[in-house]
Design goal:
The chain is an alpha/beta fold and about 325 residues long. It has 9 helices and 9 strands. The strands form 3 sheets. A 5-stranded parallel sheet has the order 4-3-5-6-9, with helices on both faces. Helix 6 links the parallel strand 5 and strand 6. It is elongated, with a radius of gyration of 23 Å.
Length: about 325
């Protein structure tokens, strides 16, 4: 099992690297309550843009909107035969309805300290990228009649009520320093419900395994969205550098020649991302990476398509 290096009391070496303190290398993010109006507008615009570019893909199911006629098959109930259409020829036809039964999608947005990081190269803190993607996905899904909500929050809702409720709950969780909402209780998750996890996944292996076990035990179809700041992946540092851990219980780490750590660090980070991908693939889940120095549209569309594929299985 490969894990990304964690906070330690070591003074040097790439194995001592940890999520970097946003106060050292990046900018202090705004309180989510202050940022939320802008993030909500960004999310709605992003969702509208992507929905406009998507071609409507009809799906057969038990809804009420007529889609097409098809020939009667041995597995069809005789009550579904459309006698008016069948009278035009020798074959029997049934009315096939568009799939439109409401599904529930639950989201979990990591609001922990490491998610506040934003390097100078990033468009936004990881937290803000997670919030925008969560709200944009919710806007896209509710347009299709889906119910969405945060894990550990109010019951999933449809329409604008879902977005407004989610925004308020995220603001509350942003100000809660207890960390209890990092991974909330998943007992409300039902088998085959879609669960979207938005996180940098920079937490200890035990917590990660517990998260995976919860998702598996609930029979969820999980979608892991890994949020990466470019600095965390590239490690562009040179010369003598001091890295301050986010935990007060850990010591800072000093690199005499930070550039000598770059290759081993990058190898560890690639292995870390590959392991997340394998965790998802082995369970039939999806894994999507979004970098905070790049637009959110492409990874957002990837998650939306992964949801559609999961429904088709």
């Amino acid at each position: 099992m490969i894990t990304l290096p964690r906070r330690t009391t070591q003074s040097s070496g790439p194995g001592a690297l940890t999520p970097l303190d946003p106060l050292d290398l990046g900018t202090r993010p705004r309180a989510l309550a202050d940022a939320m109006p802008d993030l909500m507008v960004e999310a709605k615009n992003l969702a509208a843009s992507l929905l406009a570019g998507l071609h409507g893909r009809k799906r057969a199911g038990s809804g009420q909107s007529f889609w097409q006629f098809r020939q009667y098959g041995s597995g069809d109930a005789s009550s579904r035969i459309d006698w008016r259409r069948s009278a035009r020829g020798d074959a029997l036809f049934v009315r096939e309805m568009e799939w439109e039964s409401a599904h529930t999608v639950r989201l979990s947005v990591d609001m922990s300290s490491s998610m506040r990081f934003a390097s100078p190269d990033a468009r936004e803190p990881k937290r803000d990228r997670a919030v925008v993607m969560a709200l944009a996905l919710s806007a896209m899904l509710t347009k299709g009649g889906e119910r969405v909500g945060l894990i550990g929050g109010e019951r999933p809702k449809t329409g604008d009520a879902a977005l407004n409720t989610m925004a308020l709950e995220l603001i509350t969780r942003d100000t809660d320093k207890s960390g209890k909402h990092r991974w909330s209780d998943m007992t409300a998750v039902k088998p085959r419900e879609d669960v979207i996890i938005l996180s940098d996944f920079l937490f200890d292996e035990t917590s990660r395994d517990r998260l995976v076990e919860q998702l598996v035990s609930r029979g969820a179809r999980a979608h892991l969205v890994q949020i990466i700041d470019p600095v965390e992946e590239a490690f562009p540092f040179k010369g003598r550098m001091r890295f301050q851990p986010l935990s007060k219980n850990s010591s800072e780490i000093t690199a005499g020649r930070a550039e000598s750590w770059r290759q081993p660090y990058q190898a560890l980070f690639r292995a870390f991302t590959d392991e997340l991908r394998q965790i998802a693939r082995a369970r039939g889940w999806s894994h999507t990476v979004t970098h905070t120095d790049r637009p959110a549209a492409t990874p957002l569309l990837s998650v939306h398509e992964a949801l559609s594929r999961a429904r088709d299985r």
